[in-house]
């Protein structure tokens, strides 16, 4: 793919789809050519808001549109497998919101479809594309704090969310883990890879989704990650990484940081701050730009958000759900979760 505009289709019209569309509009060489919703009125309203010429009242028409280079799937988690699978099978490249799918089995099916149809696929883990998070990872990988010993991270929203809210709905993959806990888990695995053991405890809602979950991941290296997510209380959303030679602290909003502080034994602390040229901290543009870069380079996955990493995160989320007893409608018990 040359330097012509990358033509996007947007599947679903909720808040995250609108945020993504707003950031795409600011990117040179990005064009939104179509939007789809199961409700035509929603698609038409979204199209009007963002100046999109085509609005489809079904997913199939979007997937079949030959003028689309890549589809951004922004449905709730429970529909990711169906929506992304439909697009991959139709020969579209796909950027799929996180959590990637409901479970590791579905994620594996999407990866297999991408390979079968020779298409690009990426989980929309925008944190991994954030320039300051990439700087932090490079420092850790270069040994700035020695060998990583502990990772701590939390993400909680105050709520309270009514029972009818999507975050409380088992049919939509509700609960704090897949929506919020995916960030602390992905952060820990960005630095340490897939854990060797998983322990977890949770408080469940009457509907059977997790209101808050605490997880302890451990690695044979001796590293531990203490992670927490909640839809029952607004947490500090901070993170820290402690190593044998120092520590990195990230203040509120660790998954889209404005700054972090490197503490090293016997030295003054160093502060690293986001470059104002990179845009607002909430911007999804880095993720979109990485997809466009990869497509132009003919890549089938992004080195920043590799598929193996997304699959590994889903295995960890499965293992946590197995420990806390959260299962979604239509899900069989996965052998991997039981074994894990």
Q: What structural class do you assign from the helix and strand content?
A: alpha/beta
Q: Which spans of ≥5 residues are poorly predicted at pLDDT below 50?
A: 334-340
Principal-axes shape call: globular
Beta percentage is: 15-25%
Terminal-residue CA separation: 41 Å
- How many H/I helices? 11
Keywords:
8-stranded mixed β-sheet, disordered C terminus, 14 strands, 11 helices, 340 residues, globular, alpha/beta
In a few lines, what is going on in this structure?
With 340 residues, the chain is an alpha/beta fold. The chain has helices spanning 15-25, 40-50, 59-64, 80-89, 104-116, 126-129, 131-141, 176-192, 285-296, 307-324, 335-339; strands at residues 6-11, 30-36, 54-56, 70-73, 93-96, 121-123, 148-156, 197-204, 210-218, 224-230, 239-243, 246-250, 259-264, 270-273. The longest helix is centred in the C-terminal third of the chain and has 18 residues, at 307-324.
Q: Care to describe what's here?
A:
This protein has 340 residues and is α/β, with parallel strands linked by helices. 35% of the residues lie in helices and 24% in strands. The strands form two sheets. An eight-stranded mixed β-sheet has the order 8-9-10-7-11-12-13-14, covered by helices on one side. The chain has a six-stranded parallel β-sheet with strand order 3-2-1-4-5-6, with helices on both faces. A hairpin with a 5-residue loop joins strand 13 and strand 14. The longest helix has 18 residues, at 307-324. The radius of gyration is 20 Å and the shape is globular. The model is unreliable at 334-340 (pLDDT under 50).
